[in-house]
Amino acid sequence: MTEPVAPVPEGYHSITCFLAVPDGNAAIDFYTEVFGAKVLSRADRPDGQPAHAELLIGDSTIQLGMPIPENNVRAPEDWVHTSIVHYCPDVDTVIARAIDHGARTAEEPQTFVNGERFGVVIDPFGHRWAVITRVEDISREEADRRIAAWMAEQS
């Protein structure tokens, strides 16, 4: 009897985002330089732009490619339609590197009450990245308590 096929490929998570980008080559360069991405696979169109590429960032895979308007796959133009959370060892370094490579700041790095330091950038391709480093090891319950107290103060 043959072994059943795993529904999720080895090394993947059950949800993987696909980013449509206006310049796939530039996006691969940006994600490699800023987030330390490694290209796992790539299928190029005749013009040399990726129709589909898979990148490993940390322990997670993202997919990207050029827009395919006829399939309603569009890159952001005047608004952000994708927000990605990226946990990393040093948020300040990654945010600075992103800005050096053409991202724009949406929120400066700051430490939040839940024990996470975060900053937000919009990459040159219109996607929002919340870059986060845990700086305090607290339980989910304690984080929820702190966030609730913080929200009550905001009212």
Automatic annotation (TrEMBL):
Residues 11-134 form the VOC domain. Pfam families: Glyoxalase. It comes from the Bacteria. Gene3D superfamilies: 3.30.720.110, 3.30.720.120. InterPro entries: Glyas_Bleomycin-R_OHBP_Dase, Glyas_Fos-R_dOase_dom, VOC_core. This is VOC domain-containing protein. The lineage of its organism: Bacteria, Bacillati, Actinomycetota, Actinomycetes, Mycobacteriales.
